[in-house]
Amino acid sequence: MSLFMRNYKPNSLATVYNVKLWRLNSTTADSVMKKDDNEEEEFRVLDILKKKDRMQRRVVRRADIQPDRADRMALDQKWGNVWPGPKTFHPSSVPLPLRQGYVSKGQAPPGKKANAELMKIPNFLHLTPPVIKSQCEALKQFCTEWPSLLNSEEAIEKHYPVEIITSDYCHASPSIRNPLARVVTLRFKLSTLKLDKHSRDKFIRLVGERYDKETDLVTITADRCPVRVQNLDYVNYLLTACYHEAWNVEEWEKEKTEEDMEYYEWNNNASKKSLVNWFMRTKNEFKELSEDEYRSFDVSVIPNAEGYKDAVSSLMNDGESDETVRKYGDSVRKLLGLPEKKVV
Amino acid sequence: MNISIIKLLQSGFGTSSVIAQCSPILASQLHTSAPLCRVVSGKYRITKKRDKPLTYEMANPPHYIAHRKSWNSWNTSNLKDGLRRSETAVEDEFIRRFMTGTWHGLVCSEVIIKRQFNHIRVAAIIRRAVSPTKMYFLLGYTEELLSNWLQCPVTLELQTVDSFKDVVFKYI
């Protein structure tokens, strides 16, 4: 039919004939014919904006884009091989239906694809429990056993009394240096040092506020040198120097009088002198004792003198309070053989 | 009558101007209008046709950082007492500009820079508008040049999308 029509198109007479001929057979053919007629009569439209062409330009879709890796993963694969190290989140290799983002109520948060929020947050997909386990297994061969004798805190403290505290800093920048890493702190218990009464007192005076009375800890911190090793050496030097200085007895230290004492020492005081004098008089012994003899006098021969000594010392050292005063009164009554205070 | 009133007024104005000239305190300008406390940066205005595409990043203004969206630069310099603050900021800005210029018209999201030790990870969402060959070239080129300039290993971790429409969160 089309052949026929093409041949006879220019001839209007023939077309008319055609119409008559095909009208009997089919309506569709008839409409086709009519359309042809119209086209012939219409003017061509001038398409300045080339709208038709523009509409026809089709978006070229790439055919060579691979499907997601996550869709082709075996169920029994090793995840550590898929994600061996730290990496930014990639949606096509993570087979999880993740969503991230804030949306108003009733909406679903944005999915994992093209989601910049998921790429921003640091992920730990490379540190899954089985991977950590295998890495620990691999590292085990480089580890040595913990010394069996150092099984408790006390044992460690006993064998390693000196503690060195330093800090290492780890940061996200090309430099591994941090000025704070130079600070070295040395810490030990004062009771672990071999000191007598005089040297202990002197040591505490030397270290000053670095000694903590509550915990018996001496803390020496050094940050004046630019490198950690130098600070470490300096801290050790300070400890050695203080220790040996504490054992030194200078000539002028003997001139220390009772006024210079930082605490009440009963043996050196008038309280002991009068107690000894009173005790002698009760025994009817009248002797002139020297200062040293008073000091070295053994009060254990006097009955109840120990309690009196403690009471006086605590009253002077700890200050006056109901407790100390009561204790003092009781000890004096005991010492003098007086009856106990009656509770009214 | 009228003239005298005008004269009075004139004299009155005259005295006030004299006072103003003599005492700078009286003449000092007192602003009585309310201050304009309007934060504009990082916010987008709604268009008439409501056809302006926004990514998730753009849809959340800056005060939602750490609430609805996170930072684009991850490093320890912007923490308290962090080291190399200015250097890191300048380097990050340089990386961002270099990325947007090298991947011209392809970067669909913000350039995310994460630093771990001396390693710089640069992440971005890229449009698949150029051939994979070109993309691979650009990837190597960017990594090589950046690591040469910054003297640190640089890794590009890209995600590709078909078109910008994929990253659009909403239209305003």
TrEMBL record, chain A:
One of its GO terms (biological process) is mitochondrial translation. InterPro entries: Ribosomal_mS35_mit, Ribosomal_mS35_mt. GO terms for molecular function: structural constituent of ribosome. It comes from the Eukaryota. The keyword Metal-binding does not apply. GO terms for cellular component: mitochondrial small ribosomal subunit. The keyword Ribonucleoprotein applies. Residues 177-248 form the Small ribosomal subunit protein mS35 mitochondrial conserved domain. Keywords: Ribonucleoprotein, Ribosomal protein. This is 28S ribosomal protein S35, mitochondrial. It comes from Spodoptera frugiperda (Fall armyworm).
Automatic annotation (TrEMBL), chain B:
GO terms for cellular component: mitochondrion; ribonucleoprotein complex; ribosome. It holds the Pfam family MRP-S24. Keywords: Mitochondrion, Ribonucleoprotein, Ribosomal protein, Transit peptide. One of its GO terms (biological process) is translation. It is found in: Mitochondrion. InterPro entries: Ribosomal_uS3m. Belongs to the universal ribosomal protein uS3 family. This is 28S ribosomal protein S24, mitochondrial. It comes from Spodoptera frugiperda.
